[in-house]
Amino acid sequence: MTRSRTLLIGCTFAAVVVALGLSAHALDQAAKTADMVNAPRFEVEPMWPRPLPNNWLLGQAIGIGVDSKDNLWIVHRPDILTPNEVGQDQKPPLAECCRAAPPVLAFDQAGNVIHSWGGPGQGYTWPGSNHGIFVDHKGFVWIGGNGNTDSHVLKFTQDGKFVAQYGTPGQGATRASNATDRFGRVAKIFVDPRANEAYLADGYLNRRVAVLDGDTGAVKRYWGAYGNKPDDGDQTPYDPDGPLIKQFRTPVHCADLSNDNLVYVCDRVNNRIQVFTADGKFVKETQIAKRTGGDGSIWDVAFSKDPKQTYLYVADGKNERIYVLLRDTLEVLTAFGGGGRQPGQFFAVHSIVTDLRGNIFTTETYEGRRIQKFTFRGVGQVPRDQGVVWPKK
């Protein structure tokens, strides 16, 4: 073989190698581009909220809401804290720390506690297991409960003064999805300011959405899955490969109303969202992570803050992530989070809300026991699976 021929073969081989490398790079870049989507972007705020005062600890953080001044409200379960955790509360005290925080806490945008109250009082029955909190357009604070005796909801002022009790307490052991005098372990409340109506996700025992008059608490209408009359009969276990049943499973975990008067219902253990008109007419549905067992995947929803509420945010406390959906099609665009104890991770992410700026706030139950803030960074290109949305600065 001549030297020139050898050189020619070597150059040809090098060119092929370079071409193959460029092709592989192009394919890799194309794959990465295909895996990107235009969606809202968020970053976790690791230092929010500020440390709680008075050596307070949170129990299971089981509900979150936002008021007209953009303050964040949570309700948690201090009674699940053990003596080892709240030694200062013991009689006599076991240590200089720590104490259970009051069940209801409100935070300003800086993360400072500005309200704290809750628990048993005169004229009402505090829930055996509080669950869900909402601040309505008149400034009243609504609280539900999913304990064995919880068949009612409560309304307070923002200073904790009792206003009203709707439903008959003590009936939470008997399923009654067609009753109008009591509820069945209400999971969440959403109040429509235009019609002054409260939508109850009812609940951990009943299998319905119930709509109340916001002033009197009278039941105006209710419905089950697909707009059917609720059925309290026996149900077969959830089967991801079987047909979807025509009733909600418990818990019915949220019932939130959009600006265009559509009700988004969390049918948690069926891993599905069902959408209705405000009168209970079925519109559409979707499943997310349909093979999820146990607690299910659809724990709570919140809307983006643009006028059209283009995006729907869904909290999944079993797979430990937040999904971002196009609200009109219910297509999942992207998700962020992941299981763990560090900022931006979740353990049993239970509740979700957006403030007036479009930021997301979440609470965690079981052993999660915290509130987190995710700052809205505008709409842009993000991976379909974002993982932990850690600050880029």
Give the biggest sheet.
4 strands, antiparallel
Helical content band: under 10%
Which radius of gyration do the C-alpha atoms yield? 25 Å
Structural category = mainly beta
* Total number of beta strands: 26
Kindly report the spatial arrangement of strands forming the biggest sheet.
1-26-25-24
Identify low-pLDDT runs: none
What's the CATH superfamily of the largest domain, by name? Answer: TolB, C-terminal domain
Domain count: the total is 2
Distance between the termini: 60 Å
Characterise the protein shown here.
With 393 residues, this protein is mostly beta strands. The protein has two domains: 1-34; 41-383, 6 Propeller (Neuraminidase), CATH 2.120.10. 8% of the residues lie in helices and 39% in strands. The protein has one helix spanning 3-34; strands at residues 36-44, 56-57, 60-66, 72-77, 99-100, 104-107, 113-117, 130-135, 141-145, 152-156, 162-167, 186-192, 197-202, 208-213, 219-223, 252-257, 262-267, 272-277, 282-287, 300-303, 311-316, 321-326, 331-337, 349-354, 360-364, 370-383. It has a four-stranded antiparallel sheet. It has a four-stranded antiparallel sheet with strand order 3-4-6-7, with no helix packed on it. Strands 8-9-10-11 form a four-stranded antiparallel sheet, with no helix packed on it. A hairpin with a 5-residue loop joins strand 25 (360-364) and strand 26. The longest helix is centred in the first third of the chain and has 32 residues, at 3-34. The protein starts with a helix and ends in a 10-residue tail after the last strand. 42% of the residues are buried. The model has no long low-confidence stretch (mean pLDDT 93).
